[in-house]
Amino acid sequence: RAKWHLNALDLNHLTSGDEKYYEALSLLLLMMKAGEAQPLLRAVKEHPQNNVRIAVISLLALSRQEDILSELHRLAFPLPAEVRSALLTALNLPGSASPHEFRGENSEHS
Known about the structure:
Blueprint: H1 8-12, H2 19-33, H3 38-46, H4 50-62, H5 66-75, H6 81-92, H7 99-102
Helix pairs in contact: 3-4, 4-6, 5-6
């Protein structure tokens, strides 16, 4: 099984809106498909930028994989209020997040 490593730049590109956004998205989707969600879950818990945490939450929630959703729910309560709110919203959505939510943007201000 391949060992995946994330650096902050890969995750920061999730909020960039440029071509690096698509590169980061492709890499992270590939990781999830390979069953390597733990680095992403760790980013939800530890990344210094809330907008990046929210983008990663949206990506993970799109998987609709029960083990990932369960882990996200477990992570909700030690998180900052803004991130926790986005996480709980993502867990309750039956479909997918909007592109603005996915990039960690507040859809009310778009």
